[in-house]
Structures are given as C-alpha cells and as structure tokens.
Specification:
Elements: H1 3-29, H2 32-38, H3 43-71, H4 74-83, H5 97-126, H6 131-160, H7 163-169, H8 171-187, H9 204-218, H10 224-234, H11 239-267, H12 274-286, H13 291-319, H14 325-351, H15 355-383
Helix pairs in contact: 1-5, 1-6, 1-8, 2-3, 3-5, 3-14, 4-5, 4-8, 5-14, 6-7, 6-11, 6-13, 9-14, 9-15, 11-13, 12-13, 12-15, 14-15
C-alpha cells in the first residue's frame, strides 16, 4: 500500500475515533442537566458543573500540550484522554450526585488531555495528503457522531424510560474508540517522523500574531444558544424550527469542512480572509428578525464553525515547529475557548442594550482580526 493510501486510511480511522467519541459525549450532553436534577442537583450545581467542565476541558490543554512536546508522548496522551470517556457509560452504575458530577468533570478533563495530542498526530501524518482536507474529513465524522449520539440516547430512553440504559449503551461506542485508536497507532506508531520541514521559517512572532487573530476572529461569534434565543424572542422561529435549523447548520458544517479544508490546501492562508467577513455577516443575519435571513444565518454559522475546525487547526501546523506542535495546539484551543466564552458574555450584555451594539462590537473585532491577518501575511512572506 502506498504511503498516501495509508495516510488516508489513517485519517479515516482517526475520524472514526472522533465519531464514536462524540457519540458518547454528545449523546448525554443534552440530558446531563436533567439527569443531575433527577439526583437532587439545584440549578446552581448544574450550572457550576457545566461551567467548570468547559473550563477544565480548555485550561488543561495548556499543560497537556506542553507535556506532549517534552515527553513526545503523542499516543500516550491520546489514549489516556480518550480513556476518560469511560466515565460516561459508568454513570449507569452511579446513584450519588457527587459521584455523577465527578464523572462528568473527569470526562471533560480527559478532553483537555487528548485534544492537543490528537491534533498533533493528525498534523504530522496529514502533511502528505493535505492538512486542510484531513481535518475537514475528521470534522465530518465528528459531526456525524454528534448527531447519531443523541438519537441513540433518545431511542434508548424512550423505550426504557431509564437514564441508566442510555448510559450503558455508550459502552459500545467506547469499545469502538479503543479499537480504532489501536488500529491507527499500529499504522503510524511514530507519526512525527512523517513530517518534513515547511517553507516558512517558523518564529514565535508569527505564531502569536496568529493566536491574536484567532482570539479576535472568535470573540464576536455568537453560539447557537444565543442565536436561537433571539429567534424565539423575536418570534422568527418556533421550538421545532429552532431544532431543525440547528441540525441544518450541523449538516452544512459537515460538508463545508471538507470543501474549505481542501481549498486551504491549495490557497493556504489566503482562505482565512473569508473568516472575518463571514463572521460579521453571521451577526448581521442572525439578529435581523426575518425568517429567510434566519436560514442564511444558520448556513453562515455552519460555515464559520467549519473554517475554525478545519482551516484554523491546519494553519497551526503550518506555522509551528514539530518540537512545539503540542504546546501550540494547546494554547490555540485554550485561546479559542477563552475568546468564545468572553465573546458570548459580551454579546449577551450588549444585546440587552440593543442588537445594534452587538453588530458594532462584531464589526470592530472582525476589523482588528483582518488587520492582524494582513500583518500575518507580511510576516510569512518575509520568512518564506
């Protein structure tokens, strides 16, 4: 088998890992709040668990990314992180609120452990076939899993009216995660050996300018909870339409991720120019107040997510050295999460004063991100 064929098979295997992993997490994400409530949790406990879980998932990446580089333990941290998914199906044996909260937090901790290592491995191997399309393929599988998971849990709960049956069903995708990981590792036990130096002479300045661009490009992107809240408040969509529109956005993201990823492999950083523009348009159409603009907004929402998940991750690899790849992915995902959180808090605050302020905020931040991108172009030309 030729190297490119092996790499493509490897990318599909890693896509399956993401698919089965997301089936587990996304399968229970939607009901975790009411599950904790059934164990006696207050609204504050549920909120703290959700917030602390996301904080752990992003903050741990800074540490795990650094350790991945120093120890070159790419597969160890990947296996360890995905291993923490076991705590979700183990909820089937839990009757204590405290233990349930702990298990949910441990799964998010595992997410922080595995993400920099997994992305680093993919960046090494995918150079031979194109990083953009490779991350796009993995995102396609990932989104598919996030759709199947909740459906499986919904069916199991509808049939048995018991949370524990749904949790137990997650043992199957967990076993598939482990099997897929072992198959992938067998193909490339030392993935760092596949990468060859890029044409750009790497420097800290280039990378940190890119990190600033990442922050400002995501900080004014509203998440779907905020968008759907406006849809409902303004009477643009009813509850059923909001759920259908979300599925539409997820399906659109699946398709766009592969297309935009392949486009990145051809045009490289130039494709990032679309991100500030599309993000700004997303804000304008999301808070416009019309049914047809709502359709456009969810398509833009899926597009922006696809760019962040495929193109932005690919660019990290093209801008960093092999020896700092894990740390780079750690800080990239941390800044992404921080910007997303701070941005949506700001959007929520500004929306109470008037949605025109949200549009102004988006325009300013996306203009800054565009200036940073232009500066990044200049730096990469000098280093090329």
């Amino acid at each position: 088998m030729e190297l490119k064929d092996r790499v493509l098979k490897f990318i599909v295997l890693m896509g399956l890992v993401s698919l089965f992993g997301d089936m587990i997490y996304e399968g229970v994400r939607g009901i975790s709040g009411i599950y904790l409530q059934s164990l006696g949790a207050s609204m504050m406990v549920v909120s703290i668990t959700a917030g602390l879980g996301e904080f752990l998932g992003y903050s741990v990446r800074l540490i795990s990314g650094t350790l991945v580089d120093r120890l070159k333990a790419y597969w160890f941290f990947t296996f360890l992180g995905y291993g923490f998914l076991i705590f979700i199906p183990l909820l089937a044996f839990v009757d204590s609120l405290e233990l349930a909260v702990l298990f949910i937090l441990l799964e998010r901790f595992g997410k922080g452990l595995r993400t920099p290592a997994r992305d680093t491995i993919v960046s090494f191997v995918s150079q031979k076939v194109g990083r953009g399309v490779s991350f796009g393929i993995i995102k396609f599988f990932d989104q598919f899993g996030s759709i199947i998971g909740p459906l499986i849990f919904l069916i199991s709960y509808s049939l048995f009216h018991n949370y524990k049956v749904g949790f137990s069903a997650m043992f199957i995708p967990f076993a598939m995660v482990v099997i897929s990981l072992f198959m992938a590792r067998k193909m490339f036990p030392n993935p760092e050996k596949l990468e060859t130096p890029t044409l750009i002479e790497n420097s800290n300045r280039i990378f940190y300018v890119y990190i600033l661009f990442t922050f400002f490009s995501i900080v004014s992107m509203p998440n779907y909870q905020v968008i759907s809240y406006f849809f409902k408040l303004s009477g643009v969509l009813n509850n059923e339409q909001i759920m259908v529109f979300y599925m539409l956005a997820m399906f659109f993201e699946m398709v766009v991720a592969i297309v935009i990823g392949k486009t990145y492999d051809i045009y490289k950083f130039k494709i990032l120019t679309f991100l500030p523009v599309v993000t700004f348009l997303l804000v304008i159409f999301s808070f416009n107040g019309y049914f047809y603009t709502a359709i456009i907004s969810v398509l833009l929402y899926g597009t922006v997510l696809a760019i962040h998940e495929s193109v932005m991750r690919s660019a990290v690899a093209d801008l960093t050295k092999v020896s700092k790849r894990g740390f780079s992915y750690g800080i990239f995902t941390f800044i992404f999460g921080l910007g997303y959180f701070l941005g949506n808090v700001t959007i929520g605050f500004l929306s109470n004063k008037g949605y025109v302020y949200v549009v102004i905020f988006s325009g300013l931040t996306q203009f800054i991100s565009l200036l940073l991108l232009i500066y990044l172009f200049q730096l990469t030309k000098k280093k090329a």
